[in-house]
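Example record

The entry below shows one chain as it appears in the dataset: sequence first, then structure tokens.
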Amino acid sequence: MVGRRNMGRASPFVLVLVTLGVFFATYNLITVVIHHRYGVVNGLDLVDPVTGLPRDELAMMTSSNAPRYHVALTATDAAYSQWQCRIMYYWYKKYKDMPGSGMGEFTRILHSGKSDSLMEEIPTMVVDPLPHGLDRGYIVLNRPWAFVQWLEKATIEEDYILMAEPDHIFVNPLPNLAYGGNPAAFPFFYIKPIDNEKIMRKYYPEEKGPVSNIDPIGNSPVIIKKSVLEEVVPTWMNVSLRMKDDPEADKAFGWVLEMYAYAVASALHGVKHTLREDFMIQPPWDQEVKRSYIIHYTYGCDYNMKGELTYGKIGEWRFDKRSHLLAPPPKNLPLPPKGVPESVVRLVKMVNEATANIPGWDSLRRRF
């Protein structure tokens, strides 16, 4: 009995050793978990401080071995669309082959049904517009129909597509943000599926899941696998037409109706997008370019000569694409006054560089 009691007891020295061993093992485990969570292992920072992406993921996207994406945008033969396309294509060519770029070939999908004067300057495929009257003056409704035709008729070498717009300007080399994961899209603050649940349920039934499955996006900018886009695009077109025929949806969504339609169509196919706020900026609200990839100049930029924003009121200095509906802007636009955000200054400088270097810019102005 005495022998058994002694065998069942551990000496204080052994207990101390065991306790210390458990402590250090637990400490090491917690340290590894914390470091993995915050992207640090063995002193190595695994998260890129600029993009916030894991470094291995970023390296994969920017690798020369990453698959390229085809840049595609829809356009008309109107002067307003043409001059924006020319500037956009100029900057595409500047950034296409820079380190970190995932850009492949480029197509302007011209949905005017006939050739225009830019056919030799910009790679273009002509497609048909919607039948007369079907768009009801909402010309953007031609966008999904244009993509349906292009995907059916074109020979596209790349496995990924970037859907872009004429009023996009590349400001940094854009990698394939969708490589190795979901499609990548920009989240728009004004696309609010949850706030419009009543309307959404007409097109996204309850059996499909919560309305939160619908991403707060439009079709552009989006980088997506071609095979996935081929499935989504016909649904996008049909939902767009149905929404335009729905007075409630048409009134609620207005000029962003086809954006809602793309978001719904994607969700109907179970497609989730990685939301990338660094995909693009929209001056004057976004004031710095930083590591974003695209400037979207959809908003007017109005300032007084003190550099103060006068949004809603025409400023003493202004840049607004809608000031040039009938003809391209002139060369050498005046730069903003001191104090205007860097994003606006960068935008005007990039427009000026493009117009100074695009052949025949002045002759194009004279035509109009």
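Notes for this example: The longest strand covers residues 103-110. The mean pLDDT is 87.
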